[in-house]
Design brief:
By secondary structure, the chain is mostly helical. The chain has 21 helices and no strands.
């Protein structure tokens, strides 16, 4: 990079730009959720229409994540990073200015299209800007944005909506987006363009149809009744056909859309497996925590958001420490420790009730966040430890795509299980609420819950509904915990990071880009 600024300062400025881009995109995956009821009234939208505010963004981002590697290699990483940052910022402002639901959905589609590239490009920039020895520290800095964004999104969205209006959920991106664009223009180097690359339109179209249909089915399945809905069944069929044609085409063409050389690297394959695990676990537990605190215990959304922020504190603490820890411990040791800590926190959550106190919620959340941090940074480091430099952007795109799809699958599974579990448990418990139940005939209980009165029956119904929810949440936490425990043995696939570092730093090919 030419210019009077020293390389260290330029690198720091590029790091800040990469972080702001990451945080913007990560926040927008969750920040708009709490503002939907307010948008619905302003935009005169039905419940099904307002849900498309979320669905349009998710589907567009999922489809456009896959080609990020090819686009950056073909046209230059700096140019694409600037265009996507500027496009995302402009689309955010347009979302805040939307006058009806059609405009909102259109602008959210644009936001997803431009936002898809921000996380994989920012990770690639961070990997290229730091030496192998500094990479754990770089991934810790970058990981704070990826992990903290979804955790802080609901509470920030609630505060902005209640303090100002739902429009500020989108306007908040303007200053950060502007600084990101200006910083990238001033401090980032352009990469070499490969003008010989040809776009595999059939491969992209097949993959886009497959991923888009899958995301639609996962996002709309709960409200439409899953396989009871012809729309959801149709979307699953279209997704399966799309994946079939994508793989059939990719294995028979000379230049496939996805560079399958990625999957010859053992560490990258292991990273893909555990990134899928992280996507499932991180977002599914987030999807459960907020409704539990609000619907079962009864906290207002801002209080619930503050309690959830304690998990972010645990993640922050882990990421501050994990760079140093990787000097003394193998990455697989830290990943196993983090998964075990997360599983332990979920075991504690299976015993939560409507009487669970704030200190326990905060303590368990901090430990859970700490476990996430112990997994994420070593995992991000391991994934690219032995991957050739020319495959790095494709690799970050693939990891982002897997994490996003896995998060959608995880959320869909736990919410579906929660709904069905609550309904099933309510039916079982309700059978015991009758005049022949000896517990209900006890004088102390009968004085509070008298089934011969409307008030008594309403109170009994409410108590049964709450207990059914508590049991269903507990079963969901058990399900996620078992999934983590089953995945822990897979960590033996991870090779020795210390040996790989010694081997690679002995060669010249991994020089740092500054």
């Amino acid at each position: 990079m030419s210019g009077p600024l020293p390389p260290g300062l330029r690198r720091n400025m590029v790091t800040i730009c990469a972080m702001t881009a990451t945080i913007m995109q990560a926040l927008d995956t969750t920040i708009a959720n709490v503002a939907l009821p307010y948008m619905q009234g302003t935009l005169s939208a039905s419940q099904d229409q307002i849900n498309w505010v979320l669905t349009s963004y998710i589907v567009a981002a999922a489809i456009m994540t896959a080609p990020v590697g090819w686009i950056a290699n073909r046209y230059g990483r700096k140019r694409i990073f600037i265009i996507c940052s500027a496009g995302f910022t402009i689309a955010s402002v347009l979302c805040g200015l939307a006058q009806d639901i059609n405009q909102m959905v259109l602008f959210r589609l644009l936001q997803g299209v431009f936002g898809a590239a921000l996380v994989p490009l920012s990770q690639t920039v961070m990997l290229d800007s730091y030496t192998l020895q500094e990479r754990a520290k770089a991934m810790a800095i970058w990981g704070m944005g990826v992990m903290m964004g979804p955790i802080m999104g609901p509470s920030l969205g609630a505060w902005l909506t209640e303090t100002y209006s739902w429009h500020w959920v989108f306007f908040v991106n303007l200053p950060f987006g502007a600084l990101t664009v200006l910083g990238l223009i001033a401090f980032m180097d352009e990469t070499k363009k490969d003008l010989t690359l040809r776009f595999d339109f059939f491969g992209f179209a097949a993959l886009a149809v497959a991923i888009g249909s899958l995301q639609l089915a996962l996002d709309r399945g709960e409200q439409l009744g899953w396989l009871e809905s012809n729309e959801i069944v149709g979307e699953f069929i279209v997704s399966a056909v799309g994946f079939y044609y994508f793989f059939a085409h990719s294995f028979t063409t000379a230049r496939p859309f996805i560079q399958f050389a990625l999957f010859k690297d053992r560490n990258f394959v292991t990273g893909c497996i555990f990134m899928t695990v992280m996507g499932l676990v991180l977002y599914s537990t987030m999807a459960l925590a907020s409704p539990y605190l609000q619907n079962v215990i009864g906290y207002p959304i801002i209080t619930a958001g503050m309690l959830l922020a304690s998990r972010g504190l645990g993640t922050f603490l882990a990421m501050m420490m994990v760079g140093r820890l990787m000097r003394y411990f193998e990455a697989r040791t830290l990943i196993i420790s983090g998964l075990a800590l997360t599983a332990g926190s979920l075991f504690q959550m299976t015993g939560w009730t409507e009487m669970t106190q704030v200190p326990e919620i905060v303590t368990v959340s901090v430990f859970q966040g700490f476990g996430f941090g112990l997994v994420f940074v070593p995992l991000s480091t391991v994934s690219f430890l032995t991957l050739p430099n020319h495959l790095r952007t494709d690799g970050t795109s693939m990891l982002t795509l897997l994490r996003n799809v896995a998060s959608s699958i995880g959320i869909s599974i736990v919410i579906a299980q929660l709904t069905q579990g609550t309904r099933r448990t309510y039916a079982i418990l309700s059978e015991h609420i009758n005049p022949f139940n000896h517990a209900l005939q006890m004088p102390d209980v009968r004085g509070i819950i008298n089934l011969s009165t409307d008030a008594g029956r309403a109170m009994a119904d409410k108590m049964v509904a709450v207990q059914a929810q508590i049991i269903a949440f507990s079963q969901d936490y058990q399900l996620v915990m078992l999934f983590i425990l089953v995945s822990i043995p897979l960590a033996i696939m991870i090779g020795s990071t210390k040996a790989a570092l010694r081997k690679q730093t002995a060669g010249p090919e991994h020089a740092v880009v500054e």
